[in-house]
Specification:
2 copies of one chain form a homodimer. Chain A is α/β, with parallel strands linked by helices and 204 residues long. Chain A has 8 helices and 9 strands. Chain A has a 5-stranded parallel β-sheet with strand order 2-7-1-8-9, with helices on both faces. A 4-stranded mixed β-sheet of chain A has the order 4-3-6-5. Chain A binds chain B through residues 1, 120-121, 123-128, 153, 156, 159-160, 163-168, 178, 181-182, 184-186, 188-190, 193, 196-197, 199-201, 203-204, and chain B through 1, 120-121, 123-128, 153, 156, 159-160, 163-168, 178, 181-182, 184-186, 188-190, 193, 196-197, 199-201, 203-204.
Chain lengths: 204, 204
């Protein structure tokens, strides 16, 4: 069934395992397009420019901000991250399903610009498991864990009012399947089926 | 994931094949509850009272209407058909997914009483195929076929404004799978997940 393009936002607190879920989603042969973020941070081992991120200088990044070429951007620590607008608009106009991994704040901005965005919140199975996952990272001290937990609680609270769907990341494959199910269902929304409906109607 | 109950409306014009789709949906082991309609028409061969329909006299039916015990009712020819309210409310309070097969007019009434109803419109793949299907029934004369086609066009037009999802009944199994996908996705709606969310939150 031919459809209009669809913008899908995936968010979730640190420790929800969203990065693993999204990586697994893209490894499958599901018909979606990944939006590539622009960042000023240095590439890590194994990362490819234009695939994992578009790696740019701070000067180039800030010029993109000034020229309103980014859908949203944020600064974490000393690094900027942002979503280039032009490729997203191109894919949507071609009927693609475009996936954005984005935080709760960025999601809010995207929804204002694309009101029919589908938003999915990836949730840990319980607060205890979230805490355990944050501690198991090892790289973070007690204060950092508590700070991240507090942020997670705030984000989960916002999820209730701001997100369309919630997916519990208890089992990785189940979570990936749930996201596919949601996208497949959204493709049947009457509001997204204008192209198809016009096919049925053309001979009425 | 434990959820609130969910009411799902299935509609579609004569010739869309909705009866076959719904029968197939119920034959599968999918976790849904079928609402049984009340009717004044006589049972056909193989139909069981309380399973296919609740068969009642016109007197009993009209008493149910008067006592406001029906969610909706309609008269086709000389027979009344209606949906008893009490069992639907009971199933919903128990967290069940309740399926109602209902026409476009009845759907409108249900949505007013249960605003978070999910509505799915089953569509023929094309108007030509709809026409062919109506003619192949054999039991209907030319005038009847044209009358049903006109009604179908009116219903399809209303679908665009009034239904949430559209499922094309081109291949029977695909159509059944599409309905399951939609119901599974709706079970992940944040707005339906209050029971689960309270579980995650209880230790925050």
């Amino acid at each position: 069934m031919k459809n209009n393009g669809m913008l899908v936002i995936l968010s979730g607190p640190a420790g929800s395992g969203k990065d693993t879920v999204i990586a697994e989603l893209f490894k499958s042969n599901f018909d979606i397009t990944k939006s590539v973020s622009m960042t000023t941070r240095a590439p890590r081992d194994g990362e490819t420019d234009g695939i994992d991120y578009i790696f740019v200088s701070e000067e180039v990044f800030l010029k993109s901000v000034k020229n309103e070429e980014l859908l949203e951007f944020a600064r974490y620590g000393i690094n900027y991250y942002g979503t280039p607008k032009a490729p997203v608009d191109k894919w949507l106009s071609e009927g693609e399903t475009v996936i954005l991994k984005i935080d709760v704040e960025g999601a809010d901005n995207i929804r204002k610009m694309y009101p029919d965005t589908v938003s999915i919140f990836i949730m840990p199975p319980s607060m205890q498991i979230l805490e355990k996952r944050l501690r198991n990272r090892g790289s973070e001290d007690e204060e950092d864990v508590l700070r991240r937990l507090k942020i997670a609680v705030r984000e989960i609270e916002r999820c209730k009012d701001e997100y369309d769907y919630v997916v519990i990341n208890d089992d990785l494959q189940d979570a990936v399947d749930d996201i596919k199910t949601i996208i497949n269902a959204e493709r049947h929304k009457v509001s997204r089926s204008s192209i198809f409906l016009s096919e049925v109607f053309k001979n009425v």
